[in-house]
Design goal:
The protein has about 230 residues and is of the alpha+beta class. The protein has helices at about 1-25, 30-35, 60-65; strands spanning about 50-60, 80-85, 90-100, 105-120, 125-150, 155-170, 180-195, 200-210, 215-220, 225-230. The model is unreliable at about 20-40 (pLDDT under 50).
Length: about 230
């Protein structure tokens, strides 16, 4: 399922890039004429809808690789064995205000969690369920976006955000905490939005990073791929 999703996202990114090549290759004179006229599907459209709201999904590739059937958290009870990891995936909501055709600013809230079963070992092959453990990351990220292509229902953009990440859950870290905060960086290397001026879908390639030091790493290139739907008004 994940392979199929990643394949679809990559195909959409490639199609949008190929669609954008003719406009990027225009001469300076052609681009100036296109920007000045603002008519008939030019590279830069006039801003008629200043507000954008979207909700979306992001992958948990980092969490899956790091936490799959093992834990990095110290456990005082060596008889406890973590099993059956489940991943919520990342879910986010974002609001942007389009100041002009190329610059937007706003903020995003993102949630991603991991659940697993702590099992007790009694020295045999049989494991007994003890309790369900979990941790989650809640990120609040002010964001700026730069749009460099807008034509024929397709927009290409990059974005950068930095904010705060709250990591919480049932487990205690090496400092004795169940909740900790750290900075979070969200980078969108390439975003592709397809739709009309009111309704659209988008896919993005980038990453989210949150760490306080080498021992407190909460997100490391998480959300490599995202997909979302949204409205402009």
């Amino acid at each position: 399922m994940k392979t199929t999703v990643y394949g679809v996202i990559c195909a959409l990114l490639l199609a949008a890039l190929l669609h954008a090549v003719p406009a990027v290759g225009q001469t300076d004179a052609a681009q100036s004429t296109s920007i000045a006229s603002h008519k008939g599907g030019n590279v830069y459209q006039p801003v008629t809808q200043h507000h954008e709201l979207r909700i979306g999904w992001g992958d948990m590739m980092f969490e899956t690789l790091v936490w799959h059937d093992k834990t990095l958290l110290p456990n005082a009870n060596s008889n406890i064995i973590p099993k059956n990891y489940r991943y919520t995936q990342h879910w986010f909501a974002e609001y942007l205000y389009h100041l002009n055709f190329w610059f937007s600013f706003g903020g995003m809230v993102d949630y991603g969690g991991v659940y697993w079963d702590n099992m007790a070992s009694n020295g045999t092959d049989d494991l007994q369920f003890v309790y369900t453990a979990w941790f989650a990351n809640i990120a609040m990220v002010p964001t700026i976006r730069f749009t460099y292509y807008d034509k024929d229902l397709v927009r290409l953009y990059s974005a950068l955000g930095y904010g705060i990440n709250i990591n919480t859950g049932t487990e205690v870290d090496y400092k004795g905490r169940t909740t900790a905060c750290a900075g979070v960086l969200n980078l969108t290397l390439l975003g592709v939005s397809v739709g009309n001026e009111h309704v659209f879908g988008s896919v993005e390639l980038g990453g989210t990073f949150s760490m306080a030091n080498k021992q407190e790493i909460y997100l490391l290139d998480s959300r490599i791929f995202t997909a979302s739907v949204g409205v402009r008004f």
